[in-house]
Write a structure and sequence with these properties.
The protein is an alpha+beta fold. The protein contains 12 helices and 6 strands.
Length: about 400
């Protein structure tokens, strides 16, 4: 019995490791190159980006490669009538399936951890690499396109000579309520300052103008302006989003969110009560006031729903390893095909058609509050029922 279990586990782990390395390597290369091209990251920054992208790739490749390994091992055994021989000896097929389910359970825990690591460490680290390369990203874009834009500022140049920008047109707008400052200069230079998280723009021999306010020239001087590095790289990550938070911080944020909603309700009740007592019925009848109040509360409520959904999403996504194997193992045995690729795709296609749409629906509905957060587990529940039906068929027949 132990010899059979050991043989199955060795074959499973061997195929799993080979497939995982191959598929993850391909995904990492494609993912890194895609992100580097989208952000304009120089080649020197790609090796630094790989460790941060790796957990994000692994959380998708681990369930798929485990399913591939499971269907390969069991399809080969079933196709060679080894499962029939085992049943003829009075040994339950669960003897073959149970070790694989145990491995899948522990890999599910690892995948939950990878889900948490990918969003709380991987995304932040990748963003930091891009931010630190802001100077090179801007220079590379200016060399190829002669124009670089980011939230709050734009730069146009005639040409780039080394680190020197020639015939520069610069527009900077610090906020939406103030007019943009325009700088035209014979030359300029960009310098990143990661310590202070700013990108410095140093212009020489030119003109500074804010329409209707300031207008002067600096022929023998230079002007220095600073932009946040996050703006300069056009990164849109936000550590305050639930999808970027570590799991350990989410319960604390849920408590804060609940308190914020209670505080807002009390504040709105006090404001409206005072309006009634003071006879300010115009404010009470003003639809814009009510819409503003409802909008404030809706934003807080949406954030609260997202916080409550996120732990369920990560745990249910991580345990897809176990539920993929739960249906893949009995299906591979029932198909009795030695061709492992056919068995894998016949197992994976129903998952692709049923599991992922159900997951998207559950996550979307939970984040908007239309269904409970635990509904995210509905996609796994479907696989559980489906797998139980297949497993019953395998054991009985």
């Amino acid at each position: 019995m132990y010899t059979l279990t050991r043989h199955i586990l060795i074959e499973l782990i061997k195929i799993f490791v080979i497939a995982l390395v191959a598929l993850t390597s391909m995904f990492v290369v494609v993912g890194v190159v895609k992100q580097a091209m989208a952000e304009g990251l120089p080649l020197s920054g790609i090796p630094r980006l790989i460790p941060y992208v790796l957990p994000d790739m692994l959380r998708f490749t681990v369930p798929a490669t485990l399913l591939l390994a499971t269907t390969t091992v069991l399809a080969r055994m079933s196709g060679a009538n080894e499962i029939v021989a085992i049943k003829a000896l009075g040994i339950s097929p669960m003897t073959v399936i149970t070790p694989i389910l145990v491995v899948a359970f522990f890999l599910s825990l690892v995948t939950v951890w990878l889900n948490d690591l990918a969003v709380s460490w991987g995304r932040v680290g990748a963003q930091r690499v891009i931010i630190e390369a802001a100077e090179e990203i801007a220079y590379n874009t200016l060399r190829t396109q002669r124009f670089f834009s980011a939230p709050g500022f734009t730069i146009g140049v005639k040409r780039v000579e080394g680190r020197r920008l020639v015939h520069v047109t610069l527009s900077i707008q610090t906020n939406a309520n103030s007019p943009a400052a325009h700088i035209t200069a014979d030359e300029a230079e960009l310098r990143a300052d990661p310590a202070n998280n700013v990108l410095k723009i140093i212009a020489r021999n030119g003109k500074f103008e804010i329409p209707g306010t300031v207008d002067f020239q600096f022929p023998h001087d230079e002007i220095e302006r600073e932009m946040p590095l996050r703006d300069a790289t056009k990164t849109d990550g936000d550590a305050s989003k639930p999808s970027w938070m570590p799991l350990r911080d989410i319960p604390i944020e849920i408590a804060k969110s609940e308190q914020s909603i209670r505080d807002l309700d009390q504040e709105l009740a006090a404001v409206n009560a005072f309006a009634m007592l003071s006879g300010d019925f115009g404010a009470l009848a003003n639809p814009e006031v009510w819409q503003g109040q409802e909008g404030q509360r809706a934003d807080l409520q949406t954030h609260h729903h997202q916080l409550r959904t996120e732990p369920h999403r990560r745990w249910s996504s991580g345990f897809s390893c176990l539920f993929f194997v739960w249906i893949g193992a009995p299906m591979a045995i029932r198909l009795r095909r030695g061709d492992f690729l056919t068995s894998f795709f016949l197992c994976f296609m129903p998952i692709l058609i049923v599991y992922y749409p159900a997951m998207i629906y559950g996550v979307g509905g939970s984040k908007h509050g239309s269904i409970p957060p635990w509904s995210v587990w509905g996609c796994n529940a479907l696989l559980l029922l489906w797998g139980a039906y297949l497993l019953r068929k395998v054991i009985r027949y």
